[in-house]
Structure formats: C-alpha cells, structure tokens
Amino acid sequence: GRRPLSTVARSFSQELMDIFRIDNSVSDLDQQVSERRETVGKNNQELAEIEARIREMEERLRRNQSGNPAQRPQQSANVAPPAPTKGENKSRPGTTRAPQQAPSSGNMPPTPGASEDGDAEL
Fold it and tell me: Where is the stretch described as Disordered (predicted)?
C-alpha cells in the first residue's frame, strides 16, 4: 500500500513545486540573502574603515590645535580686528575657525558615503 501513496505524494509535491516554483524561489531567496549578507558585511567593513579614518583625522586636528599654541595667537591676532565688531566671536576666534575647517575637509566626505550605503540597502 505504500508504493501508490508515495507516487501520489511525489507527483503532488512536484505539481506544487511547478505551480509555485517553490524549489527555485527558495534557492533564489537563499542566494539573495547570502549576497545581501556579503554586501552588508562589506559595507560594515567600509564604514568601520571610514570611521577609523575620521577618528584619526579628528585626533590629528586636536593635536594640531593643542600642539601649536604659538600659531594660535598669530591667527587670533589676524582675526582680532573683526572680532571687536562681532562681540560673540571675541572669546573664541580660534575655535570658531577650526570647526569651519573640519566640516569642509573632514566631515563632508562621510556624508555621501552614508547616503550611498543607505541607497544600496534599499
């Protein structure tokens, strides 16, 4: 009695696979999941490398700002004439200048990278 049941079960199973393409869709989905995992892994690695470079650049910037006190008074002396007209900038001419340089050189490149990563995942 088992032989006819197994033949019926096999043919029914094959018909279901043909109708819904279960075999192909499962293997295709598995392959897509594997590819996306690889992509996410690569993106995470790239992100970690970029973050490490940003940290290195920030550390260099801090070292340059704190390590060169002789240059700061010269820069603030050059900035001093506009500073009295702008009461807010009087106390921090050096700190006002440094954050303006950092976003243009250090913080701007990661922003497009982050949006590209976001687009790649969608």
Answer: 55-122
Residues near 80 by Cβ (< 8 Å), separated by ≥ 6? 93
Percent of the chain with pLDDT over 90: 27
Q: Give CA–CA dist 60/44, Å, rounded.
A: 24
The CA distances from residue 99 to 1, 20, 24, 110, in Å, are: 83, 59, 55, 16
Using a 10 angstrom Cβ sphere, with 0-12 exposed, 13-18 middle and 19 or more buried, the burial of residue 117 is middle
Q: How far apart are CA 112 and CA 74, in angstroms?
A: 35
Rounded to whole angstroms, the Cα distance separating 53 from 71 reads 25
Q: How many CB atoms lie within 10 A of CB 95?
A: 12
Question: How far, in Å, CA of 46 to CA of 35, rounded?
Answer: 16
pTM over cut 0.85: no
